Amino acid sequence: MISEKMMGLGKKRSVIREIFEYGNKRRQEIGAENVFDFSLGNPSIPAPEFVNETMKRLITEKDSVALHGYTSAQGALPVRQAISDHINKRFSIGATPDLLYMTCGAAASLTITLNALINSGDEVIVLAPFFPEYRVFAEKAGAEIKVVKCRENDLQIDFTALENALTKNTKAIIVNSPNNPSGVVLSEDTIKELAELLNKKSAEFGTDIYIIADEPYRELVYGDVEVPYIPSYYNNTVVCYSYSKSLSLPGERIGYIFVSPRLENCTDVYAAVCGAGRALGFVCAPSLLQYTVAECLGLTGDISVYEKNRNILYNALTEYGYTAAKPDGAFYLFIKSPEADANAFCERAKKYELLLVPGDDFGFPGYVRISYCVSTEMIEKSLPSFLKLIKEYR
Ligand code: PLP
């Protein structure tokens, strides 16, 4: 008998993948230029040229055996040193290489961190709307998921709901800002209030409650918006970072876990991270990528493209009568469905070749995700379809 649960996960395609496959069919039938596919969160801007140059240079100049060989399980020391120096330069937090663990992207960072923290029966809080894989990762680690919905008007944390959800079994809360699927950045006031509440509740329960800060979109913010660095506000924080979106390298699988030095038992938590990495077989992240990102710290692709897309889409859609919390980051817009059933709305959108993702899987029914990491030309061409679609509801 094999694992029914794993077989189920393998057989069930995500809603996003279903829509993408439908898009492939339509692209063949009517031509790619006529399909407005807003389903995937795949960066549409190229990696900075310096990333490619660095890779080429490493391949031609670095000793090949060393470059392609195993690094330490937690990542090459010079790489971890460079990243911790970079973190300190930006956030003055006292990062050290022995609190950093290199991973294959945020997915691995999250999986390892959850396995490091969770004992069976522990609860993990996720704030809806949330990245659907949190449920898969947390449940596999043995946790019970508790969903707390954000406030509908601005998608900041609903502290009354959160306080009610916290129990002595709460081990962690996953915080994702800028957020997938909404693009919303949690404000400094929100993070301060969150830290205060978690400190109060940990003291009351006599437990440790960790924030797992999932930050693949940290660098993708527009205008003068600042994303508060959670370890600066709350001691029990583990950061899960990825270069997938900031450097447009999602297929290369590279990121890291950073255990805050302000965490009281940080060396034990880091040991548990190393242990979970070992138990899951997530040791020694791809070495070429480790050495590459260490030389590209602080770089991003040309994110002005995303900002332009956001402005065009947000301004046009709100003018047409759609409502959405303004996204300050990432490359997603989360609009309220004009009918209660977002699935029905997304089906109707297909009539206009608009491929949108219903919010149900993000724990937020009645809303719809639009990924605007697509060409600006496609966005401009799609606007009349969005207008025709909402006119059906007038
Ligand atoms: N967390 C969030 C919120 C995401 O949106 C994604 C990917 O889209 C991930 C984690 C996984 O990122 P990675 O490709 O680095 O594994």
Describe the structure.
This protein is α/β, with parallel strands linked by helices. The protein contains 14 helices and twelve strands. A seven-stranded mixed β-sheet has the order 2-8-7-6-5-3-4, sandwiched between helices. The protein has a three-stranded antiparallel β-sheet with strand order 9-12-11. Strands 1-10 form a two-stranded parallel sheet. Helix 6 packs parallel to helix 7 and helix 12 runs parallel beside helix 14. The longest helix has 18 residues. The radius of gyration is 21 Å and the shape is globular. The protein starts with a helix and ends with a helix. The mean pLDDT is 97. It binds pyridoxal-5'-phosphate. The site of pyridoxal-5'-phosphate has 13 residues, from helix 6. The site of pyridoxal-5'-phosphate (PLP) has 13 residues, from helix 6.
Assembly form of the protein: single chain
- The total beta strand count reads 12
The span between the termini is 54 Å
In this entry the ligands are:
pyridoxal-5'-phosphate
**What overall form do the CA principal axes indicate?**
globular
